[in-house]
Amino acid sequence: MIRRRKKSTKKRGRESHSGLRRRGAGNRGGRGMAGMGKKTGSQKKTRNLAKKIKLGHQGFTNPTRKKQKIINVRDLEKHAVKSEVNTKKLGYDKVGGKGELKANLKVIAKSFTKKAETKIKKAKGQAVVI
């Protein structure tokens, strides 16, 4: 009868590497999903459910969507020319509301966020939509 030696609970001596004897991936059968073989289907599903991972394609991707380039209110003063900023010439589409505006500027853009518009008007400036 073959008997397997019990894993020691005490980690003393030079061979135990300061208690780090069984530290590799080999001790636990590989890393991640290694060793699952042909019967992975159900195990993958339960693991992904536990991690809240959805598999497959979700939703719809609009192929004609264009990403808008945004400049924030805090950066407008740097680009001011005679108290006017034309964001289209700078290459931006929209003005965002991050930061503060101290100078009263006339800002010309395709669109503004509500916060940006209120901050420009609060600084006694103008928000002009092209």
How would you summarize this macromolecular structure in one to three sentences?
By secondary structure, this protein is an alpha/beta fold. It has 3 helices and 6 strands; from the N terminus they run αββαβββαβ.
What structural keywords apply?
three-stranded parallel β-sheet, elongated, alpha/beta, 3 helices, 130 residues, Ribosomal Protein L15, Chain: K, domain 2
The percent of residues in helical segments reads 10-25%
What oligomeric arrangement do these chains adopt?
single chain
Radius of gyration: 31 Å
> SS-based structural class?
alpha/beta
Q: What characterizes the major β-sheet? A: 3 strands, parallel
Straight-line distance between termini: 88 Å
According to DSSP, the number of beta strands is 6
- Overall average residue pLDDT: 82
Identify the CATH class of the domain at 70-129.
Alpha Beta
Task: Find the CATH topology of the domain at 70-129.
Answer: Ribosomal Protein L15, Chain: K, domain 2
Strand order of the largest sheet: 1-3-5
Q: Could you spell the SSE succession in H and E letters?
A: HEEHEEEHE
**In the CATH hierarchy, what is the architecture of the domain at 70-129 at level 2?**
Ribosomal Protein L15, Chain: K, domain 2
Total count of helical runs of at least 4 residues: 3
Low-confidence segments, ≥5 residues, pLDDT <50?
none
Mass-distribution shape = elongated
What is the beta-strand fraction? 5-15%
